[in-house]
Amino acid sequence: MKSKNSVCDVDLVYLWVNGNDPEWKARRNAFIGKTTEDSPINCKGRYANNDELKYSLRSVELYAPWIRKIFIVTDNQVPEWLDTTNPRIQIVDHSEILPPESRPCFNSCLIEAFLYRIPGLSEHFLYANDDMFLNREVWLNDFFSPDGYPIVRLTRKPFRKVRWLLREKLLRKPLRNFSRKIGNASRVVEEKYGIYYTGIMHHNIDSYLKSDFQRVIEEIFPEKFEPMLAHRMRDDSDIERIVFVYTALAEKKAILRYVTDRESMLVGIHKARHFIRLQHLHPTFFCLNDSEYATNEDRIRAKEYLQSRFPDKISFEK
Fold first, then answer.
1. What span, in angstroms and rounded, lies between the C-alpha atoms of 154 and 160?
2. What is the predicted pLDDT for the residue at 41?
3. d(CA 256, CA 187)
4. Which of 43, 205, 263, 288 could be disulfide-bonded to 292 (CB atoms 3.0-4.6 Å)?
């Protein structure tokens, strides 16, 4: 590693869903009572499977081979190309971590809140969505300080609280679901610690302590999270997982680091110019973000890029 660090084992956790799976679609449609769903918070882009996980794992094996174990949290699904006999891979079903009253669950925010229940998960762990990738070599010290605190990467949003307030109250433009959830996290931390954090997550691989999750859910804000148990779909009153980061920062148990596109870049797959900028900047982290704006042609372009960037099969594949 780059320097001496008190951290021993670090695991990596993914959430993964194959939104193309007919059985999964049937479960979801039966729950929501619809055959289609085109809203921004539950559109095709939120669940579409474009084999991103395979390429993300390739990037991890290439640039972070020191990670101990990889847990993939799914809803009764397994990627067909995944070698589940590999001892470093473990599939975790929703039923192993979510309470019965929260299943079936199609709300990533709620699933994330219970990651600390993953059997065998290390105290120090990384968390990623399947559309997040490493673009160059990283080390343990890029995620945890020598004394074991998580290094928190945020994007600067210095006037976020005021801007969002003006948007809603003056311009009467509703905030997007993601923004509302971040705002909820900011408010509960401000109420508890008197600090309003305006930075937002850099939308890529993040570092956490399992014990921080448990303390926030069970000891610090149990009354705030209890209503979420019934939110099997995304809801504007949800609390985004950035609450774990804000709490750690407020308690001075995390190291804050602000980033730009030169270190961590969010690529909208529907924007061709983003791919050009990605290759120009060559950041450490990048995310190929699907959304309600993306088309199937955009998804094809994204997969072609990933295949060219990470062409080699790895130990996690059959």
1. 13
2. 46
3. 19
4. 43
Query: Has residue 163 got a pLDDT over 50?
Result: yes
Confidence label for 57 from pLDDT (cuts 50, 70 and 90): very high
Task: Report pLDDT digits (tens) over 77-87.
Answer: 999 999 999 99
Give Cα 32 to chain centroid, integer Å.
24
Give dist(CA 94, CA 225) in Å, integer.
Answer: 18
Can you tell me whether residue 74 is helix, strand or coil?
strand
Domains of the chain: 10-309 (3.90.550.10)
pLDDT at 2: 47
Q: Is 73 exposed, middle or buried (0-12, 13-18, 19+ CB in 10 A)?
A: buried
Picking from 179, 150, 182, the residue whose alpha carbon sits closest to that of residue 251 is: 150
Nearest Cα residue to 182 out of 122, 99, 245: 245
> How far are the Cα atoms of 5, 208, 251, 305 from residue 240, in angstroms, in the given order?
29, 14, 18, 30
- Dihedral sign for Cα 125, 225, 94, 15, please: negative
**How far is residue 45 from each of residues 42, 78, 286, 289, measured CA to CA in Å?**
8, 20, 18, 9
Q: Using H for helix, E for strand and C for coil, what is the string for 168-211?
A: HHCCCCCCCHHHHHHHHHHHHHHHHHCCCCCCEECCCCEEEEHH
pTM of the model: 0.92
φ/ψ (deg, to 5) at 167 = -60, -45
The SS3 of residue 290 is coil
Band (127; pLDDT cuts 50, 70, 90): very high
CB 263, CB 285: distance < 8 Å: yes
Cα 232 to Cα 229, 294, 297, distances in angstroms: 7, 25, 30
How much of the chain, in percent, has pLDDT values that exceed 70?
Answer: 94
Q: How do residues 32-54 score in pLDDT, each as one tens digit?
A: 887 665 555 454 545 567 899 99
